[in-house]
Amino acid sequence: MTTTAKPSGNILEFADKDGEFRRKPSDFRNTISKDPDAIFTPEKDRYHLYIAWGCPWAHRTAIVRALKGLEGIIGLSVVDYLLGEKGWRFVTAEETPGCIPDTVNNAQYLSEIYFKANPDYVGRYTVPVLWDKKLQTIVNNESSEIIRIFNEAFDDFVPETKGKTFYPKHLANEIDKINEWVYDKINNGVYKCGFATTQEAYTSHVGPLFKALDDVEVILSKNEFLVGNTFTEADIRLWTTIIRFDPVYHTLFKTNLKTIKYNYPNILRWARQIYKLPKIADTVDMNHIKSSYYKSMKNLNPHGIVPVYDGPDLNL
């Protein structure tokens, strides 16, 4: 599959002209519903998930796919950790351990998937992508919505996890509230610091980031998890950022006022607790995580040198 279409701007440039990083909304925002009139309905082996192990947003979807037992229902492809000028590339596990080629569309680059869904697409080729093999299009490329889809849409196919929810109705309002500020100040906050191209832009975001981490530390000093002492999507959404914080963001993104290991004991306890849950550790590939950031972001790390530190030991 080939295409001559190109993204808008340099794929490896992230900040606007004023030095601020502003994440653009995802373009494909459909859902999968049991409604018989729905365009996308739950079916076994109809959908395919494209991810990068290094990406925290994609990591969320891999975790929920695993925890809900959807490995045999929804296929998986994993791109190479290196984000190049042509975007994410598919390679074999022999070339890069941990990768899974695209056996659905036989694409060489993720961009081909976007153009297959929309030949006039203009934008970034981001992961995750949830693909519909039947209609040959992208269902959704917004991680927060994909994890909600995985949370309940396929329950009838996996009886052993049916009813297991990471978004319980009685906690939904509280989950939404915490997701909002965690996303703005922490999940996206590290990027607003790291991708800033002016001192003013960087300084304006680093303070709120650590204030939010301080707030999380207080919550976890009193509770096992973020919401209602129940393991929810709020924990999953934050956790993928936290395990990247010390080995990546602290150094590469200059978010270095504090570390998780030495300054946030309750966050560290919580991170280790989640890591030990069944199937979670299998979704963590620290080589992909570190290499993706340090080798891809040449504007921040010109020589592509990857530090040896993997962050605090999560097995303790």
UniProtKB/TrEMBL annotation:
Residue intervals of the GST C-terminal domain: 140-293
Organism whose genome encodes this protein: Gigaspora margarita
Residue positions binding glutathione: 88, 124-127, 142-143
GO molecular function: glutathione transferase activity
SUPFAM superfamilies xref list: GST C-terminal domain-like (SSF47616), Thioredoxin-like (SSF52833)
Keyword Secreted carried by entry: no
Pfam families: GST_C_2, GST_N_2
PANTHER family, A to Z: GLUTATHIONE S-TRANSFERASE OMEGA-LIKE 1-RELATED, GLUTATHIONYL-HYDROQUINONE REDUCTASE
Catalytic residues as annotated in Swiss-Prot or TrEMBL: 55, 191
Key word Transferase present: yes
Site feature (Lowers pKa of active site Cys) residues: 249, 293
InterPro entries: Glutathione-S-Trfase_C-like, Glutathione-S-Trfase_C_sf, Glutathione_S-Trfase, Glutathione_S-Trfase_N, GST_Omega-like_C, GST_Omega/GSH, Thioredoxin-like_sf
CC terms in the record's Gene Ontology section: cytoplasm
Alphabetic keyword roster: Transferase
Phylogenetic classification of the source organism: Eukaryota, Fungi, Fungi incertae sedis, Mucoromycota, Glomeromycotina
The name this protein goes by in its record: Glutathione S-transferase omega-like 2
TM spans (from-to): none
The organism's place on the tree of life at top rank: Eukaryota
CDD domains, per the entry: GST_C_Omega_like
